[in-house]
Design goal:
Helix content: 40-55%
Radius of gyration: 22 Å
Number of domains: 2
Largest sheet: 7 strands, parallel
Number of helices: 17
Distance between the termini: 18 Å
């Protein structure tokens, strides 16, 4: 489970939720993840994430596996993460659709022509049909991206040694979802490239907006998710891929309406899953500050007011993963009159609460830059109100994410 932490202060609270899960019989491993972009915005370093994870492990007495993820990196950014990370998410979305070398294309099509025809894939009802045209089109669309992943993987392997880190291949930040047939051919290319991927993050149907529920046809997502799990199991058997290869769901926090289908699918196939929750912890910090009242509430209101003023700047880099209606955002004057409960109720993701405002939540999700610029005023407030914030962080991860997804509750 990915547990990103923008400001590096909630590691013990996050790990506490993971410990509860393990005590309840779930073999869940924490993955502290942070991207190059997030480091640049907040002014943190990969070494800081490693320190946070190690400190939380010592403080909580954790003896299970844990990881530090260089999230959404490529060949141009990976070097800064090599010393501190042992999990690497190779983001190759920018290369999807780039024309591969003619020789590479021809070799792939020839090697995998045996995939053409009607395949029998356990877990997928009926025939799974792949044509020669499907193979060539998939190679044209994805082969260059997988080659780029291979270059980055080999750079990491050279520095850290084979088997000393976890590799994820990420293709989620693209316009079109990958079909199950394309997923099979992508995995064939990953195997050809010699990448021992343990997780793969496809682009699913629907929108995975930051910090709010899934938007789309949940039944269609459920079908795709099951078929992708079945395809992964088939690919592991037929290609040279790790047995623990699993699906990764990015921007997976708060996707309450699909946790039920995901729970059923991973149970049906006895499969693993990697869920990335990332910025949801930062929002729980804001909720905790607001609930604390006084200086904490004042800081939360200041962040919201400044976020409204800088809407375009904050929205732009995340335009593909947020969907904010500016007319549904309360004015700064309205929010200035709120007490702590009103602010927390508008921000907390509780669909049953009439005060919950998904537009406000998405804006604040991408507004961590505003908090970072407050410097010690914000960080000191996190320290002062650490207890109430930690309660919110742990409750959010365990009760809203772990329980419905992994326990079906």
């Amino acid at each position: 489970m990915g547990i990103g932490d923008r400001f590096g202060r909630e590691g013990a609270a996050q790990l506490g939720a993971i410990i509860r899960a393990n005590e309840a019989g779930l073999p869940l491993a924490p993955v502290w993840n942070k991207s190059h972009r997030e480091h640049a915005i907040v002014g943190t370093t990969p070494e800081g994430v490693r320190s946070e994870a190690d400190d939380a492990v010592r403080k909580c007495g954790w003896t299970g596996p844990y990881f530090v993820d260089a999230d959404h990196i490529g060949l141009e950014t990976v070097d800064g993460f090599l010393a501190s990370s042992d999990f690497f998410t190779l983001d190759v979305a920018d290369y999807i659709g780039a024309e591969p070398a003619a020789d590479d294309l021809a070799k792939f099509v020839e090697k995998h022509r045996t995939c053409a025809g009607c395949l029998q894939i356990p877990g997928i009802d009926g025939e799974f049909v792949i044509s020669g045209e499907t193979i060539e089109n998939a190679a044209r669309k994805f082969l260059r991206a997988v080659r780029e992943a291979g270059c980055t993987y080999r750079r990491i392997e050279q520095a850290k040694g084979a088997g000393n880190f976890v590799t994820e291949v990420s293709m989620d930040e693209t316009e079109q979802p990958q079909t199950p047939a394309e997923m099979l051919l992508i995995l064939a290319a990953v195997a050809d490239e010699g990448i021992p991927a343990q997780t793969i993050a496809p682009r699913f149907t629907g929108r995975f907006n930051k910090g709010v529920d899934y938007v789309g046809d949940a039944a269609q997502f459920a079908r795709e998710f099951e078929q992708d799990i079945a395809v992964i199991a088939y690919a592991v058997e037929h290609f040279t891929l790790p047995e623990n290869l699993k699906l990764s769901v990015h921007s997976g926090s708060d996707k309450f309406s699909i946790y039920g289908p995901m729970h059923e699918a991973i149970g049906k196939f006895n499969a693993g899953v990697h869920l990335k929750t990332a910025g949801t912890t930062w929002l729980e910090e804001l909720i905790g500050l607001a609930s604390a009242g006084d200086d904490g509430l004042a800081i939360a209101k200041t962040i919201y007011r400044n976020s409204l003023d800088r809407f375009g700047e904050l929205y732009g880099p995340y335009a593909s993963v947020v969907d904010i209606d500016p007319t549904a955002l309360p004015s700064a004057e309205t929010v200035s009159a709120w007490d702590g409960d009103a602010f927390a109720s508008a921000l907390r993701h509780d669909p049953a609460c009439a005060a919950y405002n998904p537009n406000l939540r998405q804006l604040l999700h991408v507004a961590y830059k505003v908090a970072a610029e407050m410097g010690n005023r914000f960080l000191d407030a996190l320290e002062k109100h650490a207890e109430v914030i930690a309660e919110n962080v742990a409750e959010n991860i365990y009760d809203r994410h772990i329980r419905p997804l992994f326990f079906g509750e």
